[in-house]
């Protein structure tokens, strides 16, 4: 990366993909109608919540004279408590995410990138603070943050399978992890436990390629991981299908169990399906955990 | 050429290469198919797994066999194998090629032409001169010409529908010079064959060609009571099943098959019969019987009057007279007619509606005006009224005005001659005139007429007389009325006035008048003096053509019943009568031809020379193709898509049919909701997902459990399978074609419901018109949509399952339009809703984008957000409830409109 020519070239590649990513995410985000999320209780905010009789500690300027004029007591307007939340996100940028079994659907990394950027756009527009876990991007407000996130999303890290981190998660904030969770589950478990300890609730979102779900292979095959670190040869791939699926189901169960223990939500998405329903689910899940 | 049994090779030295096959075996065995390298993140889950069956790294044995066979096929193919190679003998001198050319040749005539052509080609190679002829169409002299000229005349040969004439023997005897003969026999034995053979053998060697094919012939149908018996004959052969069809005109006058029956020959049997059980009315319409699948005149038998039974109504004057049986005016008529006609004896007014062919009035003098009217109508439409005189007729006061149903005016009283109280002798019949229908009938000398009714002299009288007595007084008179005729016998129908009814002449006269028709072939005397014209001519291949261009023939010639070039087989008519001249008559038994031992008889069973090179190469290619697929399959490179594409390419036409059948079965085996495919992928997907969500909701909440919804193409798909079609309107969808409109209208009229959704309620309120709304107007212009109105608050859609007042989708527009209620009764006090019209509204028109609100993916996630927060969730819920109500409405109709449910509904409304 020190070679300036290489640096320039890769920077240009990244920059070139950014507008497309942002545009795609923007388009996706626009399908979800934004609503301000009040806390459904009195507190600091702009919106009217309720009238209550003025107490001794209420300043006189807070009294709503228009309401008070209609009765004998004086009333004060309570506003609805509105508070900005911090949502920290992480996506797996490892080599295994760059897998796509067919031209008709994108790679897992591309889908995860679009979903993450779109979700962050939505949250940022809703006035939340969004940051990236394990990167040097702390939670901030404003549209400019989406640019930073998109930049980060577009870069791949070198590992074969991703391992989630919990660096930079603020206590009592929200977190979103997106990955195929194909690698070792121990780092995830650690990260999740530590996050839960700090009162963080969130979402585990598993993105899988349809081929990874179905295992449509047959015959004599040499399987290699995307980074090339793992290698497995079989004479009859079709013979392994059932057991592969069993193992995958087992893994899903384990992640779901992890999420349940930590009080998190767990969702699965296939790159063959539409990104829109995934985003809607993610958004609702994030909304519910708030 | 080297021969191995029946297979010869043109290049046998190539077969040496077969030695190389074992080497190939060893080579191929050593090289297994290579593995595929595949990048796959899921490999982490695979580590440590063992396949249950371990296959060798070697190529499997069956693949080796496949390849070895393919190579062997190639080698043998290029060695030029030929099945049944021919060894040919030459000849010299002129060659006469003669074919029988009868109806029996017709089924395989083209094969015979090929045989003749190959014989001519062979003669050309040997530089022989050739003459070609058929025995049914004999040339006056035999022009031997060069082979290539003779080849041109082959196309002119055609089989005839009759047999080899007797004159052929004379023709053969008249030939001179020396020539060899190649005789293509039709395989039927006939007397004249021996003479011809002897004459030809005098001229040179004779070679006979015959096919092994049995010749099948159909004898004329014979009627026996209610059944028609059909017998078939054949030369030889094993067990064979044929089907005989009775062909005739249906009531609409169109020729079609009326009945069929199997004709089964047991092994070695040469004759068999089958029976048709036809009702008389249908039997009278049969024009011919054919054996299907045999294109020969012998397999066709035409029917004529002999198969028809006429329906004759007998009415006599004095029904109440208790006279002796033999004195009954109808007794002799009954006896004469019964064998050949169906008789009905009813009062006149009941007999006419039965529409008989002939009505016989025996001594009926008084006919009521109503009966006259009915009878006149019936005669004008072709009926035949046959009247006999008698005491009552003689006693009546006559005028032609009083009784128009008499051909001549009668003098009152009649006359009596030759009786005990009169002077003269009983009168006999004069010979029949030339123009009389009875012309030619012999008159027995002992017929005597002792009493008769007498016609008034009249200028038209002589033209109406068709039989008279020796003194010139009319005995039988006839007049036409419309398409029918009235015939009056001036004597009684019993033996009271004359002994005519006792004679055979009486029956013959009735036959000539076509009152009855003979059951058997008409005899020469009945045919004598008549003239017959061919109406239809039977061709050698069993087809019929009009005989209008042929000259007629006399009854005497026809009486021989032998078809020939002058009298081709066919249907001959004379006045109202018809006679069929068939190729095979009732007695004929066709037998196979027998030849003397010194004659060489070639048959077609000698298999023709067939080069097999193409077959071997094609088989090798096919094997190699299978090899490709097998290799791909072994190495895992064969994906479902490739196989599916290949199979689809192989069986495209069948598959499309099977697919549409499968779709139809899927659509009808359960309730299936459908949406119209608009061509806009996003809208179509949303519509599908919406109906999917609605189907899911219905399954969970109601007893309606629909299958997966389908998209329908209104141009090509069948709509009637679907109870409800959701039609999202897009601004640029194509207009339906005229066919699609008629299909849609049929659908709407037959109880289907289309939900039009313009999806524009978010900005189309308060009278603004969107492009979608304009498109809907354009589309709906061609549809048969009844008057519509805004959905009233008490419409049945508000209470078919859920009680609703809002019908939101993704948007909450107000206006939903449904079929206007026709007889909207006024609101009854105490009733929450009016008694609106019956039936299902055929259309629901709105713009709330319901599909988007219902849209769900297969994991149950909603695809489109609706509203905000809890209010949005409520709106989606109401949208689902509206969808449930819609489907309930379609499936249950006005069930909930039934006032029976009012108390229960009132109860619930009050809560």
Q: Could you describe the 3D structure shown?
A:
The complex is a heterodimer of chains A (290) and B (911). Chain A has 290 residues and is of the alpha/beta class. Chain A has helices at 4-29, 65-68, 108-125, 144-154, 186-197, 210-214, 241-262, 275-289, and strands at 48-53, 75-79, 86-91, 129-132, 137-140, 174-179, 201-208, 221-224, 231-234, 265-270. Chain A has two domains: 4-36 and 84-289, Rossmann fold (3-Layer(aba) Sandwich); 48-79, no CATH class. Chain A is 39% helix and 18% strand. In chain A, the strands form three sheets. In chain A, strands 5-4-3-6-7-10 form a six-stranded mixed beta sheet. Chain A has a two-stranded antiparallel sheet with strand order 1-2. In chain A, α1 packs across α3 (108-125). The radius of gyration of chain A is 23 Å and the shape is elongated. The model of chain A has no long low-confidence stretch (mean pLDDT 80). Chain B has 911 residues and is of the alpha/beta class. Chain B contains 25 helices and 40 strands. In chain B, α1 (21-30) packs antiparallel against α3 (61-78) and α6 runs parallel beside α7 (192-203). Chain B is flat and about 130 Å long. The interface between A and B is large, with 48 and 40 residues.
